[in-house]
Amino acid sequence: MTFGDSTRSVRAGSASPGQPGQPFLPGPVFAAPYHLDPVAGPQPGVDGYGRTDNPTLRALESAIGDLEGGECVAFSSGMAAVSAVLLALLRPGDTVVVPADGYFLARAFAQESLPGVRVLLAPTAGPYPSFDGVQLVLLETPANPGLDVCDIASLAAQAHEAGALVAVDNTTPTPLGQRPLELGADLSVASASKALTGHSDLVLGYVCATSSELAGRLRTWRARTGGVPGPFEAWLAHRSLGTLDLRLRRQSENAAAVAELLAGRPEVSSVRWPGRPADPAYRIASRQMRRIPGIVTFTLPSKAHVDAFLTTSELIAAATSFGGLHSSADRRAQWGDDAPEGLVRLSCGIEDTQDLVADVTAALDAAARTAA
Ligand code: PLP
């Protein structure tokens, strides 16, 4: 039987059927070493040491793997996952294509920490360079923070034709919003610190692969470099997955309403939300994505205008990161991101839509009065 998204989220990684007397989700197992058989020593299939063996982490990986449709290797953060892909798969002399407008630390890492690797930057919406001589194409769609979208299936076909692997940063959509492996990517990599876990209370990342060989290389890389998630984070992440569908639905509804509101405001010079028919990414997004995330990026006239907006709003917290229960906003230029001073990435939470719309309207009105 094929289940819907919410059923899959609730059941992901759970033992089925449940065992009498056992909890729905077993608690975290805290262990550095485990007892070994004093005579036989390490045995296949018996946990020995926490850097490689942990049942709580395996359950989470099984859950995320179910949702992404691949084999999952979890990492201690999204950056640990992104850097593992780049470092484990590239060698000096190789060429990698990375997004010019994606998460800025991934770009900075590629440019500054891959000695001997040629790094080509490509805007998410294109044009892309020829993939001849390229070993790895890293895509991020929708790109953070500008929310441009690229056609994963078409780029994956072109990259494979040239012999390159394709990794997609799936942080913003989550596997319920987009399934890169089904669209032809070899790897789906993400920060699970955002909407996937969605409660703004943990830092985590993962890579999912269609090939066991690739997943095995990343698992070996993780065991050797040590960026393994702790059991508490793994358990907390798994506990949060069950509500993913519900959270994303409300976030997306809120984003639709807020994007419409922003589009009608004279002080807002650009609004990006790939679910709006007027958005340049709408056509590809509606074909490729299963749902549109709750992130809206817009531009106010100045830093002062953003400051007034954020200090007046009751519901929008000033915070970096995104995808949580609470609405939050981040003025990206404050992090050295190459963004206009007034560009705001607004992450819509799960508040009631009418409350959020009323709050954004009041805060924009107040900011406009302050600026006048
Ligand atoms: N990828 C994207 C698109 C992100 O937005 C982020 C963080 O904001 C990362 C990767 C890195 O994730 P983490 O902060 O969990 O290391």
TrEMBL record:
Its cofactor is pyridoxal 5'-phosphate. Gene3D superfamilies: Aspartate Aminotransferase, domain 1, Type I PLP-dependent aspartate aminotransferase-like (Major domain). Pfam families: Cys_Met_Meta_PP. The modification N6-(pyridoxal phosphate)lysine is found at residue 194. The keyword NAD does not apply. The keyword Amino-acid biosynthesis does not apply. Belongs to the trans-sulfuration enzymes family. Keywords: Pyridoxal phosphate. This is Putative cystathionine gamma-lyase. NCBIfam families: PRK07582.1.
